[in-house]
């Protein structure tokens, strides 16, 4: 009688555990399935458009710029920037804040444009954001950004790996005065190819040495 009671108890516990495991897997599978894929196109043009206040900028900016800054400020774990030229102050400030917040930030720039007027290279160097380049007769003309792709193959509900890519250089001229386009996507097959390209360049390119002038 006693053994029969123990057997029933063990069977009950096993049944509850099995049911809980099945329910857990179903719930997380459903959540993963229900997680929306991101595929957004952001167009920039030189035609005057209404400007708006934004939490991402001290100045009024266009809706397109606001959407771009929304994604650039989104990383939780990592952001890798591969950009021909980067001088937009709102984007530079966003990358600095991400680094201070503990997000891993890496930047690749074209050698000829690394010290262009308004570039954030010295500010990056000052707080420890690594920047790399390759001195060459050829341009490093890529314009893409990878967000949280360090967690691309990790089951993680609190972040969505993204890629930002298009014709847009991250400059004031580009976001306010040119016809440009940007695509933001969470498609893993596409992201992985650009992730491989970034890692390849990161190994090939060299750290930028910023010479600090000591006061006499």
Automatic annotation (TrEMBL):
Gene Ontology biological-process annotations: lipid catabolic process; piRNA processing
Entry's transmembrane regions: 6-27
Keyword tags: Hydrolase, Lipid degradation, Lipid metabolism, Membrane, Transmembrane, Transmembrane helix
Assigned GO CC terms: mitochondrion
Classification via PANTHER family: CARDIOLIPIN HYDROLASE, MITOCHONDRIAL CARDIOLIPIN HYDROLASE
Record Pfam families: PLDc_2 (PF13091)
Molecular function in Gene Ontology: RNA endonuclease activity producing 5'-phosphomonoesters, hydrolytic mechanism
Protein name: Mitochondrial cardiolipin hydrolase
Species of origin: Vanessa tameamea
Family recorded in the similarity comment: Belongs to the phospholipase D family. MitoPLD/Zucchini subfamily.
């Amino acid at each position: 009688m006693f053994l029969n009671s123990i057997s029933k108890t063990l069977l009950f516990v096993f049944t509850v555990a099995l049911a809980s495991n099945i329910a857990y897997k179903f719930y997380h599978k459903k959540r993963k399935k229900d997680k929306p894929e991101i595929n957004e196109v952001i167009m920039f043009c030189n035609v005057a458009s209404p400007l708006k206040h934004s939490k991402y900028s001290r100045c009024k900016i266009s809706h397109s710029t606001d959407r771009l800054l929304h994604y650039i400020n989104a990383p939780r774990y990592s952001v890798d920037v591969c950009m021909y030229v980067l001088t937009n102050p709102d984007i530079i400030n966003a990358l600095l804040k991400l680094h201070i917040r503990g997000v891993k930030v890496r930047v690749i720039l074209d050698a000829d444009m690394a010290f262009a007027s308004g570039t954030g290279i010295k500010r990056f160097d000052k707080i420890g954001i690594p920047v790399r380049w390759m001195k060459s007769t050829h341009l490093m003309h890529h314009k893409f950004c990878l967000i949280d792709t360090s967690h691309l193959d990790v089951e993680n509900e609190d972040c969505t790996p993204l890629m930002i890519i298009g014709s847009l250089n991250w400059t004031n001229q580009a976001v306010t005065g040119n016809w440009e386009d940007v695509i933001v996507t969470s498609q893993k097959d596409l992201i992985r190819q650009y992730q491989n390209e970034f890692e390849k360049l990161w190994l090939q390119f060299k750290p930028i040495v910023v010479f600090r002038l000591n006061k006499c």
